[in-house]
User: Which sequence fits this backbone?
């Protein structure tokens, strides 16, 4: 609830800006247009539009834009990310030459990704833990990306703050203006996503197959004295066949 309140306070200027923008009156007929051109009035003047809040440039709204930003960061983290996970090897920053080929939004680390909790059951957000973990490796000096699952009821409130019909995924970039309190609170209360098998796979160490055998003996009341478990099972199968044949 506290995270949602802080997030809505951060995003509310976006809806205020959209409400303040002049609305289009649609296409006029040629007759009305000629009349308006011949007799201009102050009421016909369209007020100038203002620039949107700066926070809009530091958001990824929707599944596609958020996913594309994570995938671009994941591309930057290879192959240096694999080397950074090996013990005794220092992590290296992304190659500036390859980074310049990516969109500007992908060059900035994502501090937080918000998604609807109900989508987790549908499998839409099942890839986020692994993808966000790999994307965080593109900027080893920055704090890893946090994942925040919001209740389904929070979607309507977030959509209202953004001035759009609905929103299921929302990404917040690291240097978003005015987002310091939100990011700091989330980092203090939300744990970092860990992918243990990825660290083990990057070490290049062979892990042999381990098979554990567990012997389960039948109940003591059904096994005659001196009869092993295997023999008891074999005799039980034979007795079942005889009973079916009879």
Assistant:
């Amino acid at each position: 609830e506290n995270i949602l309140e802080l997030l809505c306070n951060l995003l509310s200027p976006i809806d205020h800006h959209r409400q303040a923008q002049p609305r289009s009156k649609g296409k006029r007929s040629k007759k009305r247009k000629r009349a308006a051109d011949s007799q201009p009035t102050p009421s016909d003047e369209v007020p100038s539009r203002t620039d949107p809040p700066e926070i809009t440039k530091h958001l990824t709204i929707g599944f596609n834009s958020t996913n594309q930003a994570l995938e671009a960061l994941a591309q930057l983290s290879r192959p240096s990310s694999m080397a950074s996970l090996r013990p005794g090897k220092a992590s290296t920053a992304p190659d500036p030459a390859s980074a310049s080929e990516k969109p500007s939004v992908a060059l900035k680390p994502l501090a937080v990704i918000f998604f609807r909790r109900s989508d987790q059951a549908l499998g839409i957000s099942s890839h986020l833990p692994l993808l966000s973990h790999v994307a965080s490796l593109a900027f080893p000096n920055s704090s890893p990306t946090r994942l925040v699952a919001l209740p389904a009821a929070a979607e309507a409130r977030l959509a209202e703050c953004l001035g759009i019909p609905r929103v299921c995924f929302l990404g917040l970039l690291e240097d978003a203006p005015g987002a310091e309190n939100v990011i700091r609170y989330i980092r203090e209360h939300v744990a970092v996503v860990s992918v243990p098998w990825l660290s083990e796979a990057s070490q290049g160490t062979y892990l042999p197959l381990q098979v554990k055998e567990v012997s389960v003996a039948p109940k003591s009341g059904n096994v005659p004295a001196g009869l092993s478990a295997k023999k008891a099972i074999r005799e039980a199968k034979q007795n079942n066949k005889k009973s079916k044949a009879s």
Remarks:
- The CA atoms of residues 154 and 209 lie 46 Å apart.
- The beta strands are 59-61, 110-116, 146-150, 169-173.
- The radius of gyration is 30 Å.
